[in-house]
């Protein structure tokens, strides 16, 4: 009788192990099977920007608008005159410089003071400056720029504000050169927000944090974070380009949302075949899947291209 009970328990354990293995294989294969539709959909524009675009709801109407800066300090806002499902970006009536006569370099959109609306942070005369939104989420009005003394480094370019460690406030990633190196050598850097979401304070710069690699001899490089495999943590993407040879890299977060650790970079982007200067991600059609938007090299005329992500169910091997 004891042998029979032991045998039943062993069989149950084998069944549970097999069930878990199949589930793990399916989920793992699903994450690897995601790909982008190779069909290229143009987003019309007149510039070929070398700076990141940002998709966000500028006017609080429930859809994504586009913000970017061109030639360093010329700020542009492209309003979505469609809706969250069928976006139409109004390039013909782009709002030039929402800061009116104020010009800032290397700017980013972020709710830095956690008051529910977007502010603009940038560089001016060797200092980090802040243009606070003193209006509302639906009717933004930007205040005069003031110096922002929260520890942010003025040397970081192409800033990306993300909560990488799950503590509820924005940290910052970007790229910069090391002292004494040439244009081909830029490095991924990080500053942790050791303050709070409403009163930020940033730590000193760290190079290659969380096992992220240094730049791969990139003259132009941007970094982006998105949970591409839907496992609850942020994965990293970055681009590099030199002499018109652009590459995109994905680095899976093999840690978690509180203690990130990134795997070695891979270049296998199913469906993406063009070299990119800049890339970003946004669910611009509200279908629950992110789209890829990149600024393409040698795409005549140069401009943005849009790839739709396809969620393909993996099969057990």
From TrEMBL:
Q: Which InterPro entries match?
A: FG-GAP, Integrin_alpha_N
Pfam family name, one:
FG-GAP_3
Annotated transmembrane regions: none
Q: Does the keyword Signal apply?
A: yes
Keywords, ordered alphabetically = Signal
Q: Does the keyword Zinc-finger apply?
A: no
This chain's protein is named VCBS repeat-containing protein
Q: What organism does this protein naturally occur in?
A: bioreactor metagenome
């Amino acid at each position: 009788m004891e042998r029979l009970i032991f045998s039943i328990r062993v069989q149950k354990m084998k069944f549970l192990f097999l069930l878990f293995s199949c589930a793990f294989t399916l989920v793992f294969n699903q994450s690897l099977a995601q790909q982008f539709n190779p069909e290229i959909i143009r987003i019309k524009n007149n510039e070929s920007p070398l700076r990141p675009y940002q998709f966000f709801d500028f006017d609080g109407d429930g859809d994504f608008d586009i913000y970017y800066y061109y030639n360093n300090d010329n700020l542009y806002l492209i309003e979505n005159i469609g809706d969250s499902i069928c976006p139409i970006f109004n390039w013909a009536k782009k709002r030039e410089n929402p800061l009116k006569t104020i010009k800032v370099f290397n700017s980013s959109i972020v709710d830095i003071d956690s008051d529910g609306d977007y502010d603009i942070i940038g560089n001016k005369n060797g200092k980090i400056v802040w243009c606070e939104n003193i209006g509302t989420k639906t009717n933004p009005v930007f205040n005069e720029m003031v110096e922002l003394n929260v520890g942010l480094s003025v040397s970081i370019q192409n800033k990306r504000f993300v909560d990488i460690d799950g503590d509820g406030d924005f940290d910052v990633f970007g790229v910069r050169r090391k002292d004494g190196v040439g244009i081909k050598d830029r490095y991924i850097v990080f500053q942790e927000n050791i303050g709070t979401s409403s009163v930020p304070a940033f730590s000193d710069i760290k190079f290659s944090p969380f096992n992220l690699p240094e730049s791969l001899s990139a003259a132009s490089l941007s970094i982006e974070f998105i949970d591409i495999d839907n496992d609850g943590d942020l994965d990293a993407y970055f681009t590099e380009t030199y002499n018109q040879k652009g590459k995109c890299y994905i680095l899976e977060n093999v840690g978690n949302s509180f203690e990130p650790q990134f795997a070695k970079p891979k270049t296998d982007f199913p469906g993406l075949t063009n070299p990119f200067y800049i890339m970003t991600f946004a669910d611009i059609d509200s279908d629950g899947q992110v789209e890829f938007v990149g600024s393409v090299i040698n795409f005549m005329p140069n401009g943005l291209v849009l790839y739709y992500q396809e969620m393909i169910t993996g099969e057990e091997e």
